[in-house]
Amino acid sequence: MRSRILLFLLTAVLTVANASAQGPIVIKFSHVVAADTPKGKAAVRFKELAEKTTGGRVRVEVYPNSMLYKDKEELEALQLGAVQMLAPSLAKFGPFGIKEFELFDLPYIFPSRDVLYRVTQGPIGRELFRKLESKGITGLAYWDNGFKVMSANRPLRMPADFQGLRMRIQSSKVLDAQMRTLGALPQAMAFSEVYDALRNGIVDGTENPPSNLYTQKMYEVQKHVTVSNHGYLGYAVIVNKKFWDGLPGDIRSALEAAMQEATRYANTIAQQENDAALQAVRRSGKTEVHVLNDKEMAAWREALLPVQRDLESRIGRDLLSSVNKEIANSRR
Ligand code: LMR
């Protein structure tokens, strides 16, 4: 409620101040997913709120679907200042030397969204953002997408069903290990290339939350989907540090308030967007959807347990133990 009041007050104050002759400050917000996804919708919500709170002194240009930059390129473009804002998946910071974010890729690490939010919205989340500063990047917020399903052109019920499959992954060593542990062959690839790679048989399958599987039409070229919820996909909303530090103080506060509101919105719609997408995949009749039963789920959990042990030194023992402490606290 307090932030809503703050939003209202700031809108009033800054509208008056918008007399200046200079054109608006432009924020180019680039991302790789479709507009009708949790991230796509939250980006537009941020645009609306930011332009409203600053009384038009800021204009946010949202570029979805990799129309400006693909995965790896967009982080480089941000560091160069060619764009000002991104919301990449937490699985994509490893290649930039910030491998600690790969903790979010560990299979079955988050027993609930509650624990996830304890991590992202608590000291661990802030500590991870501090690691971005040395790369000229400032972290603003964590946006939710959801838990992933697996897809392929054959049923994936038991870990053995993955044997020899070429599976597309994001550029994360944890996801690489996850697929190898299942006996599959991981293939890191930019998001914008996945649909064609599946259709042309360059890869056999992939993993993503239903909202991406549906909006990228991947389900049209995958006969089977397994609702495994084996891993999480979320985002870090980040800005170019020099750009952000260079903003007038009143504008930065208005944008921070707008981001808080957009984050609340993003994390509110994420689950329902994914539920609706999974329903739409079912209704399409193009893909058989299988939900793991208890016996199958137990087999997946057991098969994937070694991943955390094997990648512990990469992610950081201290970091992992603080996450496990949050998990233990949530059970009290
Ligand atoms: C992927 O590459 O599969 C996802 O990270 C895309 C996204 O941003 O949701």
TrEMBL record:
Range of residues in the leader sequence: 1-21
Domain of life: Bacteria
InterPro entries attached to this UniProt entry: DctP_fam (IPR018389), TRAP_DctP (IPR004682), TRAP_DctP_sf (IPR038404)
Keyword Transport: yes
Key words of the record: Signal, Transport
Family to which the UniProt record says this protein belongs: Belongs to the bacterial solute-binding protein 7 family.
Protein name per Swiss-Prot or TrEMBL: C4-dicarboxylate ABC transporter
Organism the protein comes from: Noviherbaspirillum aridicola
Source taxonomy: Bacteria, Pseudomonadati, Pseudomonadota, Betaproteobacteria, Burkholderiales
